[in-house]
Amino acid sequence: MNLLLSAALALGASARAAPAFAPLEKVREWPVYDERASGETDLGDLCRMARLPCGVVAPKGARLVAPAVPIAGLTVGALLDRILAAHPGYAAELNEGVLVVRRTLDAIARGDGRMLWGAESDGKACAGFRFESWRAPQAIEKGSVLVSVSGHKSLTPKR
Prior knowledge:
Layout: H1 2-17, H2 24-27, E1 38-42, H3 43-50, E2 54-56, E3 65-70, H4 76-86, E4 91-95, E5 98-102, H5 105-112, E6 115-121, E7 126-133
C-alpha cells in the first residue's frame, strides 16, 4: 500500500513540475484585462493585459503598436492581429508558453538559403544583430542553358 501511495505522489509531483502550455489557438481566445476603454496597444501592453511572457525580435527602438481601438471585450487574438497587421512581415508563435514575435529576418534567411542572423545580447538587453553568409557564393564557370518545359527544344543561344 505504501508503495502504491509513493508512486501516486511521485506521479503527482512530476505532473505539477511539468509546465502545461496552452496552444496559441486557445490563448487567442483569452479576454484582455485593461482599465482603459480604448487606446493604442503595443506588444508590451498586450502581454501585460494577457498576463503572458513575451519575446520580440525587432530593430532597436522599434515599437510594435496598433492604432487606437476600443479595448473592452477584445481578445488576445484580436489585439495581436491588429498589431501584426500594422507591422507586415512580423509573425507570432507561442513557444513553450512564451508569445514570440519575429522580424522578417526569418523570411529573408529562408529566401536566401545561406544567411545566418543572430541577436547579440549581454544577458540583459539585445545589443544588436549580426548577419553572416554561412556558404561562400558559388562561382559561375559556364553560361547557363535554358531547356523548355515540354523538352522539345533547347533554348540555348545560337553562336
